[in-house]
Specification:
Chain lengths: 369, 369
């Protein structure tokens, strides 16, 4: 596939790490929350194998924070998500589908409860800050809503635990999955969570002090040499194999949480007030008409730049392929598709046309691994 | 400057015209409202000269529409902008700064009043739909808010008038600047406005019927041969020379309308209710502390990927350069900068450091031409 260059400008913001990753061999970018997000350092497959075995440092500053603080902060955060946060705890991360009053997905962030009246919403690619501002103004909530200067770097891969222990000591081993705490580096405190957009394990460092963060970035590469550290970025192959959904790719505002398999994050029987609750009750009682599923094809490559229709043997559209890649693990093409009822059953045959060729695959469960 | 490829995916949406412009030689993209926006077809300067003399067809589908309809539609649109729309007319476009309750800019769209209870907000690069939804839900407004399937193609340049007359006949000559109406092509109606993001004149076709729009796209190139038609896109050089501001580049949520020179679109003495009105009154009475101005440097080239500080002779920061290009017309580098008080006076000397070199320029008025 022909490649096109990305035009840089102030509007498509660089990150504090951009100049570093450009020296380190980034080859491709995407744009995420109006910011450059690295998409490849050479071969996706090489990077995939490396991520599964060693440790990578990722510039994921595009994962912006929406900070909501003030006496009505908890009320506003709860209003936006169908997940019951009434028993949430300080120092914990919560994966929360955000929805509108029609139960359409707005975003699927990780929400960090810093304190009862201060939250960070670590967002996927949509301007959640505008939704929050609109709701706060309309409801006359007493909150302050900002995008703080937080530029996340992720430390991902099986060797990330050793590397981080070398730098931050024993204390970091006490951090549980989706827990966060403050850790010291060179006299500065950094919020670090055990989290990240891979299933290979690791951490996300929420860098507020940029100059300290850049020193830490360099130090991670220095100390990481013994673990074969490399620069990296969210990896298309790894994230599809692991069934990590991408807002805008696999799910969007036209989908509701039940269709996306988020059932365990939909608490319609709770007492908390959130938008779209009545709509979700109706959807649940009537049953969903589409469902996000895996698909697999005996093919050696695929490159999607948009949706592809999936058809039955008569050519009727029965689903929409939204993300796909060749999986070195399964040695076939795997993808994520929104399937229409009743065609979402495992082993359902699906047909696809790529470059004039008709290919046949089948539906399977998510996640793949 | 090294170039990097753009990673395509469903999240960074293609447009109905993408496959065509890729055959026609697009070389660079940016991302605008989660959609591919062409940024160059080879040389920016060649394209600039062509635009000023002939006619170009632009894929500006990234300029998405937020449709607001229903009995409270006018109230909601007015709530978001400091421009008094109480005397607005159907069939007219209005350039409207959208602001939040702190008078920070949210977007600077062109608002189309289709009817009293149906509006299109033709947006710059931020998710205005989420702001509108939040406000509508919070205020319990009776409105419907959607992003309709509208993919704009712009016909820009001095020969656009002749070309469009050839296709749509005499009637299109009656369309005034920022007026819109429906025009027929091959049996289908298209909403066409006399507008566009250049100062070379032209039209924007709001394509709702995609298949008809694609036929029209091809027909424009066929009929346009005699006018030396070419594919193009918003041109950095032309838009800076013309002083057309770009949200995210020249202006952002940290700026208020007065700082951006939008005084004539700020109607604080009107009776209409909009957000940030009290804040704007306060800003006006106290006076602004920063102001958007032009700057010029005797240099042959510049390439910005972010802001650059402007300094006085002692090295103190007195402003921030946000966009810049080499202007073939002025034979120097021109740019748009947010200048601090009192350094915004015309002829103020500004110093800048690029690649270790110290360069001197001066402040000037906007627009340049």
């Amino acid at each position: 596939m022909k490649t096109y260059s990305i035009a840089k400008s102030r509007r498509v913001r660089s990150t504090p790490y951009t100049s570093r990753i450009e020296k380190q061999g980034v080859t491709s970018y995407t744009v995420y929350n109006h910011m450059l997000l690295p998409a490849a350092f050479g071969s996706l497959e090489d990077s995939y194998h490396h991520l599964k075995e060693y440790v990578q440092i990722w510039d994921v500053a595009g994962e912006r924070q929406v900070e909501i603080s003030g006496v009505d902060a908890a009320k506003l955060v709860q209003l936006m998500t169908c997940r019951d946060l009434s028993k949430s705890k300080n120092g914990r991360c919560y994966y929360c589908p955000l929805i509108d009053d029609q139960a359409g997905l707005i975003n699927d962030p990780v929400v960090l409860r810093i304190s009862e009246d201060r939250w960070w919403i670590s967002i996927a690619d949509s301007d959640v800050i505008l939704y929050a501002k609109g709701l706060a103004i309309g409801n006359k909530f007493n909150v302050k809503i900002t995008e703080p200067n937080v530029d996340i770097m992720a430390i991902q891969g099986p060797k990330s635990f050793k590397l981080m222990e070398d730098i931050f000591g024993e204390k970091i081993k006490q951090l549980k999955f989706f827990g966060f705490d403050y850790f010291e580096f060179g006299g500065d405190k950094h919020l670090i969570a055990q989290s990240g957009w891979s299933k290979q394990g690791g951490y996300e460092i929420y860098v507020e002090n940029t100059s300290s963060g850049l020193k830490l970035y360099d130090y991670l590469f220095e100390k990481g040499k013994q673990y074969n550290v490399k620069p990296g970025c969210p990896n298309l192959i790894e994230r599809i194999e692991s069934g990590l959904l991408s807002y805008g790719n696999d799910i969007d505002n036209g989908d509701n949480p039940y269709e996306c398999g988020f059932d365990k994050y939909v608490n319609i029987d709770s007492d908390v007030e959130f938008l779209g609750k009545e709509k979700l009750k109706k959807i649940k009682s009537e049953g969903i008409k589409r469902k996000l599923m895996g698909v697999e094809f005996d093919m050696k490559e695929i490159s999607l730049s948009g949706s592809l229709n999936l058809m039955d043997e008569k050519g009727h559209i029965i689903g929409e392929l939204r993300s796909a890649c060749f999986s070195p693990f399964f040695k076939k093409v795997i993808g994520i598709a929104m399937m229409k009822k009743p065609f979402w059953e495992v082993s359902q045959t699906v047909n696809i046309k790529i470059n004039g060729n008709n290919l046949t695959g089948k539906v399977c469960d998510l996640p793949f691994i």
